[in-house]
Amino acid sequence: xxxxxxxxxxxxxxxxxxxxxxxxxxxxxxxxxxxxxxxxxxxxxxxxxxxxxxxxxxxxxxxxxxxxxxxxxxxxxxxxxxxxxxxxxxxxxxxxxxxxxxxxxxxxxxxxxxxxxxxxxxxxxxxxxxxxxxxxxxxxxxxxxxxxxxxxxxxxxxxxxxxxxxxxxxxxxxxxxxxxxxxxxxxxxxxxxxxxxxxxxxxxxxxxxxxxxxxxxxxxxxxxxxxxxxxxxxxxxxxxxxxxxxxxxxxxxxxxxxxxxxxxxxxxxxxxxxxxxxxxxxxxxxxxxxxxxxxxxxxxxxxx
Length: 304
Hints:
Layout: H1 14-29, E1 40-45, H2 51-62, E2 66-71, H3 72-75, H4 83-93, E3 96-100, H5 104-112, E4 118-122, H6 128-142, E5 149-153, H7 158-169, E6 173-177, H8 186-199, E7 203-205, H9 209-212, E8 218-221, H10 233-239, H11 247-250, E9 258-261, H12 283-302
Parallel strand pairs: 1-2, 1-3, 3-4, 5-6, 5-8, 6-7, 8-9
Helix pairs in contact: 1-6, 1-12, 2-12, 4-5, 6-7, 6-12, 7-8
């Protein structure tokens, strides 16, 4: 890892991404290391969460540490108190920060003004811990990563950005199917292209989901309306109406393809209700694997 923090998949060199997935699988299958003995981490959550909060709290405790949960009401990051002041105070009181924030810039300010590790638990631009857990799930389901075809159907949001970077780092082919105005931001897409070229994998955008899922080993989707997009809800539902992942669309993928969703889901919108209990669904394995991926990240940052 390039520095003391994990804010994006780009904090890992391409080869390090695969190594992190291997580390997560080793932790899951063997024994959890305990580099957090005697350490306390602050969990700053501007946004509510089920999987992220529980997986981090459980992981920290399993690794020997303690944590303090700080909601938006507790801190008011950037409103009640500037991020730089929060950073400098916590730097003197805790041993690490896990932050789930609205703005990626808030993470950067926390990282720039602390000497302790800062971990991105979600921002508007990236969700790197989710992407590592996704790769672990794909690796377990398919037996490998290199050469697989991963197709993401839906909004080119933070999940799509991190997944594109993660897949291109390990030699998996990544296709996004989205309307033209909802593509992955260029800053993430351009870096994913660079990594794909290095790994000799493919990166593509296909507008029609029926064409995009052909030959897919993995079909992945996420909500059309993320937190913060509520004002655009009606327009997004209209634009994405043809992008629902359902049994019909899944039937166009490879016969042994798996279905993934990072959750929470808006059932009946981006995904039909029956897909969660479909034989090809691995969404609950995916939810569990956040725990193991995040423990791998913490083991890396706190074992130095």
